[in-house]
Amino acid sequence: MAYDPDLRASDQDRDRTAALLREHLTLGRLTPDEFSERLDKAFEAKTVGDLDALLRDLPSIDLYRLPDARLTRQARQAQAAPAGARHGSAGWRAAWGTYITVNLICLVVWALTGHGYPWFLWVAGPWGAALAGTYLTLGPGRAARGELGSGRAPRQLPGGQDPLDR
To answer: pTM, whole model, 2 decimals?
Structure first.
């Protein structure tokens, strides 16, 4: 459809013009008085031509800018973990850190309550065995990369495609 300045303006057209005027005010292209005057005229506008006249002396702004082409996602390649990098992922460091912290708290509470039955081992033993078993089952390289038991990287679809590369 060709541009027709006599076409009636919708509320959405008026709101978009108001948003553009706010952006120009923020960027310093309009003074507060100019902005207020133009904003009043925008909400009183009857046609698209009336709205365009309010923006005619201002550069166009895309309020809904898409990311730069430089920001396109590249296909991720799995990197081999260096030798000895068994605790490479932040997830595993967090898991082990939580395990150690909780068990130290349990040990301190047990020590302060009179060294009775070593109940803290009921927390440390099963949890530690489950954590260590999962870690050892995955193997050092896969655990360091944060892979799960399925053998796929965390953000891969079954065909090996990254869902963000669509």
So the answer is: 0.40
State how far the Cα of 44 lies from the Cα of 34, in Å rounded to an integer: 15
Q: What is the pLDDT of residues 107-123, one digit of tens each?
A: 888 888 887 888 888 88
Query: Which residue is associated with the tokens 């109940």?
Result: 119
Read out DSSP for 26-88? Answer: HTTSS-HHHHHHHHHHHHH--BHHHHHHHHTTS----TTPPPPGGGPPPPP-PPPPPTT-TT-
**Number of helices and strands in the chain (H, E):** 6, 0
Please, what sign has the CA dihedral across residues 133, 135, 140, 142? positive
Collapsing DSSP to helix, strand or coil, 8 comes out as: strand
Predicted confidence (pLDDT) at residue 150 exceeds the cutoff of 60: no
Compute the Cα dihedral for 88, 91, 97, 99 and give only its sign. negative
Report which of 37, 10, 13, 15 is spatially closest to residue 25, judged by C-alpha positions: 37
Kindly state the average pLDDT of the residues 123-150. Answer: 71
Higher pLDDT: 87 or 45? It is 45
In the chain the first and final C-alpha atoms are separated, in Å, by: 32
Which of these, 46, 64, 48, 56, lies nearest to 4 by C-alpha position? 48
